[in-house]
Amino acid sequence: MNGYFVTGTDTGVGKTVLSALLCQALNAHYFKPFQTGQDSDTDTVVRLAGLAPSRVTPPAVHLDAPLAPSQAAEKQAQTLDIAFIALPHTDRPLIVEGAGGALVPIAPGQDMAELMIRFGLPVIVAARSGLGTLNHTLLTLEALRLRGLDVAGVALIGEPNPENRRDIERLGKIPVIIELPVLDPLTPETLRASQASLTLPPKPEAADVAGWDRANVWHPFTQARTAPAPLQAVRGRGSRLFTADGLEIVDLVSSWWVNAHGHAHPDVARAIARQASVLEQALFADFTHEPAARLAHELCALLPGGLERVFFSDNGSTAVEVAVKMAHQYWRNQGRPERNRFAAFEGGYHGDTVGAMSVGLTSGFYKGFEPLTFGVDFLPYPATWHGDESVEEKENRALAVLTNYFTVHAGTVAGVVLEPLVQGASGMRMARPGFVAAVAELTRRAGGLVIFDEVMTGFGRTGTMFACEQAGVAPDIICLAKGLTCGFLPMSVTVATDAIYQAFLGEGFDRALAHGHSFTANPLGCAAALAGLTLFQEESTLSRIAALERVHKARLTALADHPRLHMPRWRGSIGAVNVTGESQGYEAQIGRRLQLYFRERGFYARPMGDVFYILPPYCLTQDELHRAYDVLEDGLRELA
Ligand SMILES: *Cc1c(COP(=O)(O)O)cnc(C)c1O
Q1: CATH architecture assignment, domain 231-261+541-638
Q2: What is the average per-residue pLDDT within 162-180?
Q3: What Cα–Cα distance (Å) separates residue 258 from each residue in 460, 470, 524?
Q4: Is the per-residue pLDDT at 17 higher than 60?
Q5: Superfamily of domain 3-197
Q6: Is the CB of 321 under 6 A from ligand 1?
Q7: What per-residue confidence (pLDDT) applies to 367?
Q8: Strand 94-101 and strand 61-63: pairing?
Q9: What's the gap in Å between 26 CA and the centre of ligand 1?
Q10: HEC profile for 467-523?
């Protein structure tokens, strides 16, 4: 869409006259979504620019009181929602005139800047030319840019003031597109005459994202020769991603399970921006800082008792890598180097670095890398589902193997690594809390360390803040990553008990944990994480997750007898089911076809082979989740 969104530094600065001028100069279509008060700006623009009726879209909302839209609506006992304001269809350039300034409220959580984002037009700021304009204009520019808006220029209205023009251009790094004197008389003719001084900035050259990507980017977990071209994400909001070709897609997988409260949540975005202006990074060997210390403090308060020491790293794999090295060195520092075996569960996935691959070798992702890994003992995992009648038998068998394992390897096991309740990457394979508790109990009895990989299950994913709460287990080491920064920045933590920490204290460096990354405890990541934790309170996130779980349960229970589905299962925000198709496993065709079917209907799903699952941002509405299940049912019918 071509055109501009016209906003002002204040009300009454001359937005309407400027809009009329732009309509005249660009031969544009005009739309003022909100009209408050008795005077009609639309009538003024029509008269001044001489617009034919076909070149005007009347206001979407008309409110009687000459107030900010939210307050005017309140007076009429009305609630507005910008989701219902559509961009007019027109072949001409479009001039949209806002009401008041950038942060004028429209509805709870919605202001004029939000509408600008929704419309995606570059913004022109109308400002006064005289005293006070520097502050107002620079504030407006800063606010708009922090929201990610593209500001094309400033129009200065009133007596020309060369110093103000110079300073706005220099300090605001923005062109002044016109100095428009107050026109007296204000007529179509005088307006037309002032067009001469209008200089619109050239359109920025379009980025060749697809071409640059094809030429220079290497994508993860992708066979580039056969994979379709990647979708080009340009914007995120709530549960949705928007693409360069105009698609609006509901993200059913939280962008690889990292997103928590929705895409580009403004509170998190602001927290990061604020932190970036204060302290972006300080090496974490000799320094500490408030974001890291506060985050460690808050995490330890949320985690089960005993987990008291937070070690920061950058992603889920490194969180696990650190846990394994920590456990290994713990025993060495204790004078027990013979405790050097690790056990993990069949199907468990723990990341792609070499140590994480070693404990996740049976997840099926590392064909060919086995020679790089160290030996780990793999134990059976009793994956279960709704209506599974053999679950107890499977659990008993798995626990018997574990008991036997500890007898055979008495005194030599360093630790046991487990994804509690849900094995994610191997297909949302779920286990009952009692099994997780029993594994912890047996491991403790055998003297080993209990290491929980909650990289995926942490931060509400399974319905409680951490999955271990449901099993009533406080592990010795817990790995957290994906939801930590609510999807904004790569950061993870490995949290250990004080007993483990104490074992690393001594006079020499040889007892210290010789591990660290350049970006350890990055303040921006910490700020994002803290903002995310606040949102859990402010948005009652755990009760939203409970509501999503009820929908999963209702829909998956109803699908239990579906001829093409089996093993329906859910836990917290996660719902999963296996789909019968031509082939099974990670590359199963039915998954690909379902993915395409969903995409064509505005949903992004990413089945893992024959496992279809939904793991959405917590802001997904129950209606949206219902719709996703409707699409699944339709898809199974049509693809049959
Ligand atoms: C994704 C994942 C990892 C790896 O995390 P990355 O951030 O991708 O390195 C480790 N463990 C589990 C359980 C995961 O789901």
Answers
A1: Alpha-Beta Complex (3.90)
A2: 98
A3: 12, 21, 16
A4: yes
A5: P-loop containing nucleotide triphosphate hydrolases (3.40.50.300)
A6: no
A7: 87
A8: unpaired
A9: 52
A10: HHHHHCCCCCEEEECCCCCCCCCCCEEEEEEHHHHHCCCCCCHHHCCCCCCCCCCCH
435 three-class SS: helix
What does the alpha-carbon distance between residue 557 and residue 551 come to, in Å, rounded to a whole number? Answer: 10
Task: Determine the Cα–Cα distance for residues 188 and 21; give it in Å rounded to an integer.
Answer: 9
Position of tokens 């251009």? 169
pTM over 0.85: yes
Residue 318: both structure tokens together:
């490194």
Pairing, β 3-8 against β 240-243: unpaired
Question: Residue 587 above 70 pLDDT?
Answer: no
* 307: pLDDT strictly greater than 90: yes
Query: What confidence category does residue 167 fall into, taking pLDDT thresholds of 50, 70 and 90?
Result: very high
CB 63 within 8 A of CB 54: no
Identify the pLDDT of residue 584.
Answer: 59
Q: What is the CA radius of gyration of the chain?
A: 29
Chain centroid offset of residue 578 CA: 26
Ligand 1 contact, 452 CB (< 6 A):
no
Burial of 79 (0-12, 13-18, 19+ CB in 10 A): exposed
**Interatomic CA distance for residues 481 and 619, integer angstroms:** 19
Q: Is 425 close to ligand 1, i.e. is its CB under 6 Å away?
A: yes
Q: What are phi and psi of 234, to 5 degrees?
A: -115, -20
Position in ligand 1 atom list of the atom nearest CA 256: 1
Q: What is the distance between the alpha carbons of residues 20 and 360, in angstroms, rounded to a whole number?
A: 64
Q: Ligand 1 atom 10: the closest Cα is on which residue? A: 350
- Residue limits of CATH 3.40.640.10 in the chain: 267-536
At residue 256's C-alpha, the angle toward residues 251 and 257, to 5°, is: 85
For ligand 1, atom 15: residue with the closest CA:
456
φ, ψ of residue 432 in degrees (nearest 5): -80, 150
Contact 609, 586 (CB under 8 A): yes
Provide CATH 3.40.50.300 ranges for the chain. Answer: 3-197
Q: Please give the structure tokens belonging to residue 366.
A: 């590392």
- To the nearest whole percent, how much of the chain has pLDDT over 90? 95
Q: What is the pLDDT at residue 464?
A: 98
Q: Is 455 in the pocket of ligand 1 (CB under 6 A)?
A: yes
Task: Kindly give the number of the ligand 1 atom that is closest to the alpha carbon of 456.
Answer: 15
Question: CA 281, CA 289: separation in Å to the nearest integer?
Answer: 9
What span, in angstroms and rounded, lies between the C-alpha atoms of 104 and 425?
Answer: 44
Q: Which of 482, 489, 571, 615 to mutate to test ligand 1, by most ligand atoms within 8 A of the CB atom?
A: 482
Measured in angstroms, how far is the CA atom of residue 358 from the centroid of ligand 1? 13
Helix (H) or strand (E) holding 177, with range, is: strand 176-180
Q: Are 445 and 482 in contact (CB under 8 A)?
A: no
Task: Evaluate if residue 582 carries a pLDDT over 80.
Answer: no
At 542 the three-state DSSP class reads: helix
Give the architecture (CATH level 2) of 267-536. Answer: 3-Layer(aba) Sandwich (3.40)
CA of 234 relative to ligand 1 center, distance in Å: 25
Q: Is 453 in the pocket of ligand 1 (CB under 6 A)?
A: yes
